[in-house]
Amino acid sequence: MEEAGIKAKSIKPFAVSVVGTTVKWDLHYFVVDDFEVAKQDLELGEVIAAEWKSYEDARSLCLAGGVSEERSALQLLRYLNKS
Description:
By secondary structure, the chain is α+β, with helices and mostly antiparallel strands. It has helices at about 55-65, 70-80; strands spanning about 5-15, 25-35. The chain has a two-stranded antiparallel ribbon with strand order 1-2.
């Protein structure tokens, strides 16, 4: 709810991206199928604009470098490939 501005009713684990054996910075990815739109609860200094995108727009953003966190772009592409 804090960053995305949604209140999840159903959360399912999707993937974990592991950096390697010497660095602990795993990213956990989840699928939320059921939710309510809520108000963002950003911390002081955070500027996050949540936007709705079609699957095709999301795929294009990932492939064109519009998703700056490359591990997240890869996991999103894997999810979209299953859908």
